[in-house]
Amino acid sequence: MAKSSVIFDCERMKHLHSGFFYFCGQLGKALLEEATKSDDISFFIPKKLEGYFGENVAYKRVNPLYKLYLPTCGAKVWHAAYQTTPYLPLRAKVVLTVHDLNFLYERNEEDQKKYRKRLQYNVDHSDVIVTISQYVRKDLEEHIDTHGKEIHVIYNGRNTFTGDITIPKEAPKRPFLFSIGMMLPKKNFHVLPQLLIDNDMELVIAGKQLEYIDRIRQAASQCGVADRLHLVGTISDGEKYWYMKNCTAFVFPSIAEGFGLPVIEAMSCGKPVFISQYTSLPEIGGDMAYYFNKDFDGAAMRQELEEGLADFHNNNKAEASRQYANRFSWTNAAKAYWEIYKSLM
Fold it and tell me: Exposure winner among 16, 65, 247, 310, fewest CB in 10 A?
């Protein structure tokens, strides 16, 4: 690996199509675009993804042994992009990005202690801390000793897609609602089938399928709408943007988010977005999103959907939605990170 001043840790890109994959991929590309001639950056990346950022880019391949000792090849700054990463150097300044403290809300007590201990260690050994929302900053300061270190808030950008839109195999033939995310209880997807009662819409939920899908299916059966629920699993970016561009609305009832990238993606497609009132989502959705009631009462949710759709279309808010999404820029995020890197060199 060529000697670089900054190494950006993309180890978590090993989980394809995950939030961390898109965070590292989009921010990494923006960091390269914003680098000046005097800025040298390389990427700590899984072997299978070497070359992802281009052929003439420096890479440092992930090696599990680096959990014990991580050489930095003379780099002055190491950007740890995953808050509980086991990969931290001894001889470089560390920038730590904290995405969320969701382990406090979705893990058992024993796991909470383990994750809290690791996050505290990483905070202790970091020189600058970045959170992706004000909500995460507040959560971090409440549960972790930050030792008075400066905490920057740098919002994620909206993901951009320049490839070909792909019509999915399971393309609905009727108006449909769309959502996406890993099939975990915190995503709260099981409340969504209620939205299909007393109408002929369909519901498409994409994302890696885990045990939680049984609860979603059960909820759909109880509502009598199982035939209109489509759990399509992991999809390509081309398919995702087909669903985004063609859905009646994007629905995202998650109760634990550090940011909520799909919300901005849907807005950038000019779609009405309906989200929960929990964690970071109101901060990110602002006054452009519509909100489900905190109890996720089915009748109330259907009314909220109906009234929101009417407001969105009657007031021609599609373009306003796109403009709102444009506020979230990976270019701006990259510029902010470069300022931090340079302050540590």
Answer: 65
